[in-house]
Every structure is written in C-alpha cells, then in structure tokens.
Amino acid sequence: MRSASGSGVPLHLAQARRMRRFYLLLTAFFVIVQLVWIGVPIMMAVLWSLVDPQYPWSFPHLFPQRLAPAPWIYVFKYTNIIKALKTSYSIAPFAVALSFLISLPTAYVLGRKNIPGKKLFNLVVLLPIIMPGMVVALFLSRVFTAFRLSQTFIGLVLAHTLMGLPYMLRVLTTSFQTIPQDVIDAAENLGAGTFVKIKDIFLPMVRPGLLAGMIFAFTTSIEEFNLTFIIGTPTFETIPTILFSFMGYNFIRTNAAVVALVMMTPNIVMLFIVERFLKSDYLSASLGKM
Predict the structure, then answer these.
(1) Around Cβ 214, how many Cβ atoms within 10 Å?
(2) Which pLDDT does position 281 carry in this prediction?
(3) Alpha-carbon gap, residue 148 to 146, rounded angstroms
(4) Residue 216 lies in a domain
(5) Residue 31, domain member (yes or no)
(6) N or C terminus: fewer CB in 10 A for the chain?
(7) What's the CATH code of the domain at 281?
(8) Whole-number Å distance between alpha carbons of 156 and 237
(9) Which helix (H) or strand (E) is 121 found in, with range?
(10) Using CA atoms, how far apart are residues 88 and 219, in angstroms rounded to an integer?
C-alpha cells in the first residue's frame, strides 16, 4: 500500500486528512466573514443605542465612555414608536396573506404548465424589485389617489403586497418546478384525486418554499419606507418612517440605532422560529418515507 513520504500513513488517509483540514479552514473563514459582516454592525448598533448623551462617543475612544438607556427612553417617550410598531405589524400579516392568495395559483401555473410568454411574465413580476422604490411610490401614489386609497390602511396593505409579491411568487414558482413529475404520475396511477395530490404531494413539497416566501414578504413589508411615506404619511407611521426621521441633516445616530434594533430584532426572532420548520424531511414525508 502506498504511503505518504516518510510518514508511514497510507496515501488515501493523508489525502482525506488534507481535505478535512481544508474544509475546516474554509468553514472557519466563512464563519469569521459572517461574524465581521453581520456581528460587528449589530454590536455597533447595540453600543450606539446605549451611548450616554452626557458622554458622547467620538474619536479617539474605541468604545463608549459610559452606557445608559437614555436613547431608548427618549425614543419610546418622544416618538410614536409604539403606534408605529402596531401599524407595521398590522399591515405585514395582511400583506403576506394577500401575497400568498395571489401567488399560489399563479405560481402553480408558472411552475407546472407550459404557457406562452412565461419568461416575459417572470421578468415583469420582478419589476417592483428592479425599479427604484421611490419611483414606484411616486407613480403609484397618483393611481392610489385616483381610487381614494391614499392615506388608508387598505391602500398601505395593497402597496406592501405589491412589494412582497415578487418574492412570494418567485419562491413558490421554483418550489412547484422542483416537484418530480414521476411522483405525481405515480399518485395518479394509484387513483389519487386532486384533493389527495394537493394534501399529500404539493403542500408538503411547497411548504418550505411557502415559509421562505412568507419571510421575504413579511420582512419586505416591515422594512418598506418609500410607499409608506408617499401613500401613508402623515396619517400612518411605520417603523421605517420613524427611523428615517432621524436621518438627513439632523442625523441622530443613537436614536436611529434604537429604532433599527426595534425593527430588526423581531425579524431575526421570526427567522429562527421559521427556520425550525424548513427541514429537508418535508420531501421525505411527501414521498411516504416517514
């Protein structure tokens, strides 16, 4: 048996060890990159949200001289953050539900049927993402005003649905495309009707994509500023509109950090909760292996 030079270790074992070290180094590299790319900004936001106004954080201090809850107290006392939270988390579920109802039949047709102009339609669906948000908001505001939807809750739900629809539709379309036709044919040969195919094949296989689309649509609604600002203010305020009020010439970094954390934290918690349901065993369950 061949061995690595001078070591007495078989060559295939030496190669396996080298590959293992390579994968460990590659994993460590990506972990470090993620910590720097995501962890550092979050840590900075937390520190800025706790800076004591009496001891400003500036050069050459590497860390704040003193921490205090003053920025949090100011934001929750002198802004409409509580009302904005209620508005944001009232609009988002309706926008997600409406996106789902519109996307499900459309995604089924785009994913399972051959129709003329399918590629063009997929491109048109992505236009709200490709176009600048303020441009979309300015043009839609005219339409919403004409239909008396401006400054209304229903108008905001429709606007947020428009921005979340491309994500939901794209993810669901891909989910329907990945369903093996052999599984559907086998179910039909065994006498499965439409209801059985939907319950035992389509839903289990599409569920991970549906949850992913819900995350995209929900976070898009929570973070949407342009349409809310043009169509909803001053009647309605959401978390992003309060966040942007601390931007511009009167940039208050401490208050902006507080609002950013308020907007970000529930989304992160929801992401971890939904991630528990995004399991690969859904495919096994739909194939009868569980």
Answers:
(1) 22
(2) 43
(3) 6
(4) yes
(5) no
(6) N
(7) 1.10.3720.10
(8) 11
(9) helix 118-125
(10) 10
